[in-house]
Design brief:
The chain has about 230 residues and is an alpha/beta fold. It has 11 helices and 7 strands. The longest helix has 13 residues.
């Protein structure tokens, strides 16, 4: 039986909003922040440089930042989806080119403190923000601050069938190496334009339904669960 690893983007995928983008538009100069993001989307700078520039412009206290994070929401079906995956022995991990500070707080608040994730590191010093990149340039690419394909390749090397779920520009590279792709937003457009096979989704209830139909109910992907209440 094949092992399944599910790798999920965070901003705009697990989280309803692009929390990182909203953070910098809120606590930095919004016009300058949008200009930096535009340069990144046009391929003029890397996402690492984009984050570094935005962090340099931002000023916020820890208390204010925490209050901002408390108002952000996850996909309403994500927690149920995590339960669904874990009951069937699937590995599930978040890979984000965003910031660990808000990801961790949002997961804890939702009762998902034990869920593994990989992201860029945010450090607060008084009212200033500093970002570190522990997973940068892991595959000689340098396009993203956190190399998502690097994390994916570790699972593939261990014999996992890798499902990737994403919505944005930083999901383009891993989508080309995954065994199965769920896409929406900018990633959906990229996959369509570049011949990458994908399944469109709106939320994690859609993903759960698709996995149940095409993977869980197929013997080679079944981990021995005898649950019968997921139809």
């Amino acid at each position: 039986m094949k092992k399944i690893a599910i790798l999920c983007d965070f901003d705009g995928t697990v989280a309803r909003e692009d929390v990182g983008s909203l953070l910098f538009q809120t606590f930095a100069d919004a016009k300058k922040s949008r200009s930096v993001v535009k340069q990144w989307k046009e391929g003029l700078i890397s996402s690492k440089e984009c984050l570094e520039r935005e962090a340099e412009m931002a000023r916020v206290s820890r208390e204010t930042l925490d209050h901002f994070i408390c108002r952000r929401k996850l996909d309403p079906y994500f927690k149920d989806f995590v339960d669904f995956a874990k009951r069937r022995g699937m590995e599930i991990v978040i890979v984000s080119d965003g910031l660990d500070y808000y990801i961790e707080k949002m997961l804890i608040r939702t009762g998902l403190a034990d869920l593994d994730f990989f992201a860029n590191n945010l450090h607060l010093n008084e009212h200033a923000l500093h970002v570190k990149f522990p997973y940068y340039d892991m595959l000689d690419c340098r396009s993203c601050g956190n190399c998502k394909t690097y994390h994916m390749e570790k699972y593939k090397a261990d014999g996992y069938f890798v499902v990737y779920i994403g919505n944005g520009l930083s999901d383009r590279c891993p989508s080309e190496y995954a065994d199965y792709v769920f896409a929406k937003g900018e990633l959906l457009s990229y996959c369509r334009e570049n011949g990458v096979e994908f399944t469109a989704f709106r939320n994690f209830r859609d993903v759960e339904r698709e996995l149940l139909q095409h993977f869980v109910l197929r013997e080679e992907f079944t981990e021995g669960s005898d649950d019968s209440d997921d139809s």
